[in-house]
Structure formats: C-alpha cells, structure tokens
C-alpha cells in the first residue's frame, strides 16, 4: 500500500526520510504530480523506471529549489537562459543544459545533457529545501497514461508500486511544463506546453527555430504519451448541435468544447470551458473520467491555435491519433 501524506511539515520530513532511504514519493507541482527519487543516486532513480514502466532511454527532469542549483548540476549555462531563469523560475519552464559530472547517467539516459526545473509549489520547494539532493521526477503516471493532476490519479496508476504520495489536491495548471533546449546559440523548444513560444520570444526578442521533434534531441517524442482507451474525434462548431442532440437522447458519447459565452461547466458528459486555461486544468482529468465511464467516443471541438491553444491541440491531436 502506498502511504498518503498531507503537506504538514511532519509529513514532509517523513517524505524526506523515505527519499533518503532510496524510496519513491510522488509530489505535487503547479503542472502535474511528479514521481520523485533521490536524483543523485542511480539505484533510487532506477526504481522510477520500474514503477512507471518507463523505457530507460527516456531521461528525467531534476527538480531543484533555486537557480544556484542550476550551476551545480549543469555546465555552460548561456546568458539568454539566465534571462529566462530570472523571469520564469520558479515556474513551468524546464531547461536542457550540458550536464555536470555529479548527475548520474541513469537520470539523463546517458545523454550529455540534463533537464532542470524549479517547480512553483511552496510545499514541494519546502521539501526540496529539507533534502540535500535534487528530486528526479517524471510525471507520476504509468507510462502511456495521462499525467496525474491529483493524488487520487497517482494512486489509480501507482498504488503499491511507490512508497508515498504527498496529497495537495488538484494541481493548478494541469498540463506539463515546456521543455527548452538551451545547449545552442539560440533556444529551441522540445516540448511546448505551459510556457508558449511567444512568451519566450517576448523576453529574448529574437526568433527561435521551430519546435523540434527529432528524437535524438528530444527522447520523449519517441514514445506514445497517452494511449486512450476510448476514441477521441476532433470536431467543428457546426457539429456541436448534432452531438448535443445525441447526448440528450442517451447516447454514451462525451463532448468537450471552448465557448466563453457559455462559461465553464462540466455536467455528465458535456464539458464546456470558458478559457483555454480552464481546458488545460481539466483535460487529463476528463480523459481519465471518460475512460472510467466507458463512453464510446470523446468528441473535442478544435481550439484556436493561439497561446496555449497550440500546445493543447498538439496534445489532443496526439491522443486522437494514438501517437
Ligand atoms: O511539468 C512537468 O514537466 C512534469 C512535472 C512533474 O515536473 N514532469 C514531466 O516529466 O512531465 P516527464 O518525464 O513526463 O517529461 C519530461 C520530458 C520527457 O519528454 C523527456 O524525454 C524530456 O523531458 N527530457 C528529459 N531530459 C531530457 C534531456 N536531457 N534532453 C531532452 N529532453 C529531455
Ligand atoms: Mg510524462
């Protein structure tokens, strides 16, 4: 059985004891829950891959509590990255730098680079301050499942496979951090999520190259992220009335759409959202819910490709195609 810990200081001490003795503890962040282990200990990190069923050639993020830690675990941090660290840390931006020698190869899947991020979550920052090592942490789901946005999602996927989960309720954002490669003269987005292209460009004032899907640079792109147990079909506004009619006659399908004139309400199999941020908050939960309720299809109306809409559509299209 996996222990469920609250966020009291005593519980954080308990979590740190487990982590010090090579255990696995899932922790909340502002994006999704992470599955933590001592990031400087290959033996502890190896357990993450087993618990998740994650291929060992897909590297992990190291979570740290301050920017000084970046210089401990990375080398040759470029000036442009320092500007971004000042603006976006703590926050949902993950940096790829050349790795320093103390980072075990097990964390980076034998790459010469390492992913580093300061999560914007007071309790997890408190935990990191208690620890004298970084937390290696992928999202705390079984490989191929949607990332967990609550402790109960973590339990659904990993009960009995990990030692504990720190329960902080629902995460604020609900989708993963953006991964930015900072090993070259200009930054390159490897995974676009919370922090958009435009937000980074606004700070640096120069054009970056497009998102990279080269699996050598971005090992995560080799794997399916979320393989839904139910078909997901993309639709347009003009199909909405017909689908709502089918739902009203008792057909077991669900519909998700963005419509600021309606506002956010989730009732039975209708998921209407006021803003794109609201969609990102609910998306992974809805994937899980629709599977559990065994709807035959989840219809999702296409979202405009603006701001985080681009990242949302990228992920929804992947889920729809099973890629
Ligand atoms: O919001 C998040 O990023 C969450 C929370 C827990 O921090 N974490 C997360 O981790 O989503 P994970 O392992 O599910 O995704 C990390 C991504 C993977 O696609 C992995 O391939 C990539 O980052 N990655 C890790 N290290 C890398 C490296 N050295 N070079 C390129 N990509 C790397
Ligand atoms: Mg993941």
Oligomer: single chain
Mean pLDDT: 93
Ions, cofactors and other ligands present here are: threonylcarbamoyladenylate, magnesium ion
Distance between the termini: 33 Å
How many helical elements?
11
- Helical content stands at 25-40%
Largest sheet descriptor: 11 strands, mixed
Unreliable sequence segments: none
Notes on the protein architecture:
It contains eleven helices and 16 strands. It has helices at 9-20, 42-52, 67-73, 79-88, 105-108, 122-130, 151-158, 197-204, 240-248, 276-292, 309-321; strands spanning 3-5, 25-27, 34-38, 61-63, 74-75, 93-99, 113-117, 135-136, 164-166, 178-181, 188-191, 232-235, 253-258, 265-267, 270-273, 297-301. Strands 1, 2, 3, 4, 5, 6, 7, 8, 9, 10 and 11 form an eleven-stranded mixed beta sheet that branches. A hairpin with a 6-residue loop joins β2 and β3 (34-38). The chain starts with a strand and ends with a helix. The chain binds threonylcarbamoyladenylate and magnesium ion.
What are the SSEs and their pairings?
Layout lengths: L2 E3 L3 H12 L4 E3 L6 E5 L3 H11 L8 E3 L3 H7 E2 L3 H10 L4 E7 L5 H4 L4 E5 L4 H9 L4 E2 L14 H8 L5 E3 L11 E4 L6 E4 L5 H8 L27 E4 L4 H9 L4 E6 L6 E3 L2 E4 L2 H17 L4 E5 L7 H13 L2
Parallel strand pairs: 1-9, 2-9, 4-7, 6-10, 12-16, 13-15, 13-16
Antiparallel strand pairs: 2-3, 3-8, 4-8, 5-6, 6-7, 10-11, 14-15
Helix pairs in contact: 1-6
């Amino acid at each position: 059985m996996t222990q469920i810990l609250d966020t009291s200081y005593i519980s954080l001490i308990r979590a740190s004891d487990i982590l010090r003795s090579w255990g696995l503890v899932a922790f909340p962040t502002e994006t999704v829950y992470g599955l933590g282990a001592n990031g400087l200990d290959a033996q502890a990190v190896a357990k993450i891959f087993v618990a998740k069923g994650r291929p060992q050639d897909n590297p992990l993020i190291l979570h740290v509590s301050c920017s000084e830690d970046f210089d401990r675990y990375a080398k040759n941090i470029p000036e442009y990255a320092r500007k971004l660290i000042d603006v976006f840390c703590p926050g949902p931006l993950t940096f790829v730098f050349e790795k320093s020698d103390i980072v075990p190869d097990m964390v980076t899947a034998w790459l010469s680079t390492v992913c580093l991020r300061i999560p914007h979550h007071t309790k997890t920052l408190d935990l990191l301050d208690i620890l004298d090592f970084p937390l290696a942490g992928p999202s705390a789901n079984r490989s191929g499942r949607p990332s967990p946005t609550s402790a109960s999602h973590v339990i659904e996927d990993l009960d009995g496979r990990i030692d504990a989960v720190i329960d902080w309720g629902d995460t604020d954002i609900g989708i993963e951090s953006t991964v930015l490669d900072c090993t070259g003269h200009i930054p390159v987005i490897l995974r676009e999520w919370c922090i958009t292209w435009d937000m980074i460009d606004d700070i640096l004032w120069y054009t970056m190259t497009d998102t990279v899907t080269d699996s050598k640079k971005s090992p995560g792109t080799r794997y399916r992220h979320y393989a839904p147990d139910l078909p997901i079909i993309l639709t347009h506004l003009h199909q909405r009335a017909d689908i709502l009619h089918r739902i009203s006659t008792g057909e077991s399908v669900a519909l998700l759409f963005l419509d600021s004139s309606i506002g956010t309400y989730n009732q039975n199999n209708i998921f209407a959202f006021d803003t794109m941020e609201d969609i990102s908050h609910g998306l992974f939960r809805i994937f899980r819910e629709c599977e559990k309720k065994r709807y035959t299809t989840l219809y999702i109306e296409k979202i405009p490709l603006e701001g985080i809409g681009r990242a949302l559509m990228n992920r929804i299209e992947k889920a729809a195609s099973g890629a």
